[in-house]
Amino acid sequence: MSSPHHARPPETSSDDGLRLSGLSKTLGARTIIDDLDLTVHRGELVSLLGPSGCGKTTTLRMIAGFLPPDAGRITMAGRDVTHLGPDKRPSAMVFQNYALWPHMTVAKNVAYPLRLRRLPRAQIAESVDRMLELVNLMHHRDSRPPRISGGEQQRVALARALVQEPDVLLLDEPLSNLDAKLRVKVREDIRELQQRLGITTVIVTHDQEEALSISDRIAVMNAGRIEQFSSPAELYARPATEFVATFLGALNRFEGGFDGTRIVAGTDVVGIRPESVSFTSEPRPGALRASVERVVPHGHFNELRLRREDATLAAYVSGTPPLPGTEGFASVDAALLYRDGLLVPSTEAVSA
Ligand SMILES: Nc1ncnc2c1ncn2[C@@H]1O[C@H](COP(=O)(O)OP(=O)(O)OP(=O)(O)O)[C@@H](O)[C@H]1O
Ligand SMILES: [Mg+2]
Description:
The chain has 8 helices and 19 strands. By secondary structure, the protein is of the alpha+beta class. β18 (336-339) and β19 form a beta hairpin. The chain binds adenosine-5'-triphosphate (ATP) and magnesium ion.
């Protein structure tokens, strides 16, 4: 709920694609969304990233107009839409399960929102064809959704949203039904289209790699609040909270302190990215003797589980990995330090 001492963001501007201020929602007896602020610039792609149940879909449904907020305001392109229904907002949503009509052809599915608006037939046909060309589905114009692939269905759902020429495009886990390879292709297609058309876009995902690869900025959510809202690079290099550091990317985590090269006694939490750990056969300044306990292949790189005198450490290495049992030296180039869950700024990770 909004508290009196909580500073509100400045008034909305027409440069904003989308602005949420003080958004709150209680469902049952639980506060699901708690005084949430978020500004998405016009033409920007923002991901809502967070664990299951943190309130991503609830937020998206409020933005789209399917769920009324208990408190707060939603503006699109500077216009207050808080009390408008979904069809009165300049937004379109792609649902997680696509929600296509199985008995209608692909073209009829895409035409549906325009028919609801009672646009002239010729105009509808033209828009539908343009959209189907855009998403490369002209050849499936007259197919029915159950007869086309998951990736194609996903593109139909996207076309049905885009045909409405929304100012704001909302996508709820649009790629979760696709296999790994298709997911990468379709997310690149979505990003390319979104940039070409300059549509303000919010994508809900719990896949960090997906969020990191296509977003201008990512809002990391935890228990109905935004923990951090930053560019992918910033989020990774300087996770503002321990939650963000642990949620995004892998982390060696220790109780203690860090003196620049090694973990020392202390009461903070030290987080070390596996890519900040090196393993060499020759000693280096600050390096400690270590041995390779295990090698875990990750495809294009390997993870070494190293036993050092003060800890077990994961390290990512490229090239041919050393064999388990190899003795050498492990050094730590950078660490993140958290006090009471918040980043201690002087120890921000520097890329090694
Ligand atoms: N109608 C409802 N009544 C009570 N609780 C609800 C209702 N809808 C959602 N919730 C609860 O609100 C919380 C947030 O749900 P939401 O669907 O927004 O999560 P999410 O972040 O999208 O998760 P996921 O990644 O699993 O899709 C969950 O704990 C959910 O059980
Ligand atoms: Mg959800």
